[in-house]
């Protein structure tokens, strides 16, 4: 029945103030108001309809994406939306588009790596969308190994220009979003060559297409790289291929904040680390962590609401069957994901702060926290995207058969999300960067240099190598210090074990290769510690609202104890806890699940997602699942006719043939 809230009894069970939790989730009252207003704006505008996109062919889908992007831009201008509101609007449209890369990477690359004059020239054009840009770094032959890129930018002192060239097939740019069909410009990464000397990879602004007829400029071959995983998913994006044949650009289009080439062709390096050329990646990795909490929370919201609606078995004397959310196995799979969504939200907030802090320091020429910022953004991007991709798939399974229908929203969410484990740095490659940082930190412990930031705990080396958990009963695992110490000791001991093993090889490089699987595990342990500790820090803040803090304390314990249970092998083998303490943690976890249960629906309502944004029949706010599933099925284009196209051509002759054979 329309208008009935089938989940009302669940909502009435909540033991906390949902509206206050919405503020905590959004980050502030102001952020909540912006997000809520823009989400409703998008949901109520039929131009942003998205329920038909999985049935569209690639060309229609792409045109539909362009239409939405143009309409969104029109609304942004008409409503005079500010930067944050515009960003929200684009994200609620929920359809990857060239504009993501224009605003998310092209503009930040110019801001971060351009000189003041370059910013003054290019940013106003980009802000008004008079040019559209992409970020073209990856090539057919190299993505992870940025130093292996082959595109060249050779300075010609005769004409004061760079000649951009793709010397081999493998040097073609391959993957950049927005490049394939739309971008007029790109920040192109190429090896800088002056006077025959290779200075490594630098960024250049290159015009790719005419601003009059959109045709590629002379010397440029450009197109889309083809269909990707899924149906709609990331196929709304024109990931592109680009080949340069001696394309000339003026010297002042090299992004010259980090290093310069003079009129005479002299290469000058500013007094800044060359890694700042990688700054845009650090920025984007940080945003990807917050986006992980959004993607995971959407999947969890769908699976939680549906688990409360769905009933299987357990009817006695005609009573209703059991809601599947009441099965302990369902809780043990679902509630850690719910807790992870909150955990990633808070670590994302913290990472944003860290990024702003490092940016301020860089402006003041303090580069000391750059390695920490790189390690944290790389490690947390990796940890949160891997957990989210796995989590979305788990949510699909939690919804049984109906989770496999596109109308559940989960297949689309999964297909669009999984490349996050690869783009902005393959997750394993990034964890190996974290491991390098950890090994460096451990190796410096004896030198008197105290570790700082997220590795500060390693400064208590002696204690962490010796400590034994003092947990005696299950409820001891609710004490934040007990949990923190166990995670710190496990992470530290795993790093120290790797560092010791590295010394057994003839060279550190050989050792790093041989031990890379162990190093990745040590990096994961360190990153999990960061997430747990930032959740605990969040709880030390003043959090208003009836019962809100208590719910977050429960979720924090669920997150930490779930990890402890999942990785208990690490905790046991490093001697941080005993087998008895491991089973007490599991006992406590079971009890926490029972505490989450009455609040589960309200905890996902706190994400404040509109039905439009969720895009899921199973996750509907009102829980009215079955009639809507039935309605959706009839909307499928296959059901446009009773007898399908192809029946008379292929099936009927077959039937007739069999009839004839039967008569023989
Ligand atoms: C708002 C956002 C909206 C929309 C965008 C979001 C999503 C849209 C969807 C998709 C867009 C996707 C875009 C892309 O994928 S762009 C391409 C991204 N490519 C990568 O991420 C490549 C991964 N590889 C690397 O980052 C590096 O090359 C690698 C980290 C693997 C380093 O390899 P290598 O060992 O060769 O490093 P070196 O260059 O020799 O440097 C060593 C030295 O430098 C330190 N380092 C490395 N990276 C950084 C950095 N980013 N910042 C600071 N420092 C860095 C490294 O730790 C070493 O230090 P040390 O040991 O002290 O020498
Ligand atoms: C949807 C999507 C959008 C993208 N958008 C852009 C964009 O806008 N601009 C852009 O420039 N690029 C973009 N990319 C490219 C992306 O950044 C790269 O694909 C990514 O950095 C991974 O690099 P790769 O493809 O070279 O993977 P590879 O490095 O070839 O990885 C292959 C395998 O090798 C392993 N491996 C590689 N190196 C090591 C090592 N040292 N040790 C151990 N294992 C290793 C990896 O773990 C992986 O399992 C996009 C990619 C995708 C999928």
UniProtKB/TrEMBL annotation:
It comes from the Eukaryota. Belongs to the acyl-CoA oxidase family. Its cofactor is FAD. The active site is at 424 (proton acceptor). Keywords: FAD, Fatty acid metabolism, Flavoprotein, Lipid metabolism, Oxidoreductase, Peroxisome. GO terms for biological process: fatty acid beta-oxidation using acyl-CoA oxidase; lipid homeostasis; long-chain fatty acid metabolic process. It is found in: Peroxisome. This is Acyl-coenzyme A oxidase. Residues 278-439 form the Acyl-CoA oxidase C-alpha1 domain. GO terms for cellular component: peroxisome. The keyword tRNA-binding does not apply. GO terms for molecular function: acyl-CoA oxidase activity; FAD binding; fatty acid binding. FAD binds at residues 138, 177. It comes from Acacia crassicarpa (northern wattle). It holds the Pfam family Acyl-CoA_ox_N. Residues 480-656 form the Acyl-CoA oxidase C-terminal domain. Residues 17-132 form the Acyl-coenzyme A oxidase N-terminal domain.
């Amino acid at each position: 029945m329309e208008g009935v809230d089938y989940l009302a009894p669940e909502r009435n069970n909540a033991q906390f103030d949902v509206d206050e939790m919405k503020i905590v989730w959004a980050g502030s009252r102001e952020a909540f108001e912006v997000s809520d207003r823009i989400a409703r704006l998008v949901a109520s505008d039929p131009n942003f309809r998205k329920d038909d996109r999985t049935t569209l062919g690639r060309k229609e889908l792409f045109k539909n994406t362009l239409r939405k992007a143009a309409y969104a831009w029109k609304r942004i201008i008409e409503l005079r939306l500010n930067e944050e509101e515009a960003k929200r609007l684009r994200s609620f449209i929920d359809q990857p588009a060239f504009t993501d890369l224009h605003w998310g990477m092209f503009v930040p690359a110019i801001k971060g790596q351009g000189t003041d004059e370059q910013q003054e020239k290019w940013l106003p054009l980009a802000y008004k969308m008079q040019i559209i840009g992409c970020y073209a770094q990856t090539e057919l032959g190299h993505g992870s190994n940025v130093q292996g890129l082959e595109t060249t930018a050779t300075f010609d002192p005769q004409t004061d220009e760079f000649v951009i060239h793709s010397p081999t097939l493998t040097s073609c740019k391959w993957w950049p979003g927005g490049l394939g069909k739309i971008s007029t410009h790109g920040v192109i990464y190429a090896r800088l060559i002056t006077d025959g000397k290779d200075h490594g990879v630098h960024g250049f602004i290159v015009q790719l297409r005419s601003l009059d007829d959109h045709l590629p400029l002379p010397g440029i071959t450009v197109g889309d790289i083809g269909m990707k995983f899924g149906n709609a998913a990331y196929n709304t994006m024109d990931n592109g291929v680009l080949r340069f044949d001696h394309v000339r650009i003026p010297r002042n289009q090299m992004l010259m904040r980090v290093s310069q080439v003079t009129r005479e062709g002299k290469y000058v390096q500013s007094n800044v680390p060359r890694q700042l050329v990688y700054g845009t990646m650090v920025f984007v990795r940080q945003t990807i962590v917050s986006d992980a909490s959004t993607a995971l929370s959407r999947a969890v919201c769908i699976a939680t609401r549906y688990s409360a609606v769905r009933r299987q078995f357990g009817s006695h004397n005609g009573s209703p069957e059991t809601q599947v959310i009441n099965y302990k196995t369902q809780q043990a799979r679902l509630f850690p994901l719910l807790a992870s969504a909150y955990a990633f939200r808070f670590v994302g907030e913290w990472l944003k702060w860290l990024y702003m802090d490092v940016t301020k320091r860089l402006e003041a020429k303090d580069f000391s926290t750059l390695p920490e910022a790189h390690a944290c953004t790389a490690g947390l991007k990796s940890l949160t995207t891997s957990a989210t991709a796995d989590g979305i798939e788990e949510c699909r399974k939690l919804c049984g058969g109906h989770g496999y229908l596109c109308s559940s929203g989960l297949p689309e969410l999964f297909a669009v999300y999984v490349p996050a484990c690869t783009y902005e740095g393959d997750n394993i490659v990034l964890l190996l960067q974290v491991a390098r940082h950890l090994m460096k930190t451990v190796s410096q412990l004896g030198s008197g240099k105290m570790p700082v930031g997220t590795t500060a705990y390693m400064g208590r080396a002696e204690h962490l190598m010796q400590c034994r958990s003092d947990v005696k009963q299950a409820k001891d695992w609710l004490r934040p210090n007990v949990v923190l110490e166990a995670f710190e000791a496990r992470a530290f001991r795993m790093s120290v074990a790797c560092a010791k093993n590295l010394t057994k090889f003839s060279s550190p490089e050989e050792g790093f290769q041989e031990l890379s699987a162990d190093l990745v595990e040590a990096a994961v342990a360190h990153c999990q510690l960061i997430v747990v500790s930032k959740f605990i820090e969040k709880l030390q803040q003043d959090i208003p609202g009836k019962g809100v803090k208590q719910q977050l304390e429960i979720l924090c314990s669920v997150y930490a104890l779930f990890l402890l249970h999942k990785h208990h092998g690490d905790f046991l083998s490093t001697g941080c806890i005993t087998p008895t303490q491991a089973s007490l943690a599991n006992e406590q976890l079971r009890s926490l699940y029972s505490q989450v249960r009455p609040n589960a629906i309200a905890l996902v309502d706190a994400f404040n997602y509109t039905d439009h944004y969720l895009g899921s029949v199973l996750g509907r706010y009102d829980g009215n699942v079955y009639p809507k599933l039935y309605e959706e099925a009839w909307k499928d284009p296959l059901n446009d006719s009773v007898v399908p196209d192809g029946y008379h051509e292929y099936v009927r002759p077959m039937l007739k043939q069999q009839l004839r054979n039967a008569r023989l």
